[in-house]
């Protein structure tokens, strides 16, 4: 997970996404992988990030573990938002300072300026 490492910043994560170009790259669907990953995800950050990139299919709250076994529709939505949406061009923005970290060709530039270290 990327975070804002500017000296003195308290709220380092999540970074807000300001997309300019989003691409979708198809990835093989693996429900077992998704079931293991969901506990490691900051759900609100994922939902906010997906919505900022125009994907609104995720629920506000992660489902219960028991639901994951029977809800393939949810798992496919989770899969799409987690693995197939890619920020190709845009910015990641620190919510505390407003500092924008540019993303070019899918690669974020998180280098800090000398006065931010």
Folded structure, characterized:
This protein is an alpha+beta fold. Helices cover 29% and strands 21% of the residues. It has 4 helices and 4 strands, in the order E-H-H-H-H-E-E-E. Strands 1-2-3-4 form a 4-stranded antiparallel β-sheet. The longest helix has 13 residues, at 72-84. The protein is globular, with a radius of gyration of 16 Å. The relative contact order is 0.26. The model has no long low-confidence stretch (mean pLDDT 94). This is Multifunctional methyltransferase subunit TRM112-like protein At1g78190. It comes from Camelina sativa.
State mean pLDDT (0 to 100 scale): 94
Number of helices: 4
Major pleated sheet: 4 strands, antiparallel
Distance between the termini: 19 Å
Quantity of strands, as a count: 4
Helix percentage range: 25-40%
> What structural class results from the helix and strand content?
alpha+beta
Strand order of the largest sheet: 1-2-3-4
Low-confidence spans: none
Q: Rg, please?
A: 16 Å
Task: Quote the beta fraction.
Answer: 15-25%
Order of helices and strands: EHHHHEEE
Q: Given the C-alpha coordinates, what overall shape results?
A: globular
């Amino acid at each position: 997970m990327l975070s804002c490492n500017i000296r003195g910043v308290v709220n380092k994560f999540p970074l807000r996404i300001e997309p300019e170009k989003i691409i979708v790259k198809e990835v093989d669907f693996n429900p077992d992988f998704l079931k293991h990953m969901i506990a490691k995800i900051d759900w609100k950050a994922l939902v906010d990030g997906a919505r900022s990139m125009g994907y609104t299919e995720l629920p506000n709250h992660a489902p219960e573990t028991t639901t994951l076994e029977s809800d393939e529709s949810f798992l496919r939505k989770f899969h799409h938002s987690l693995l197939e949406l890619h920020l190709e061009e845009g910015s990641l923005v620190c919510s505390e300072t407003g500092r924008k970290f540019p993303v070019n060709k899918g690669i974020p530039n998180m280098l800090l300026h000398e006065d931010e270290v």
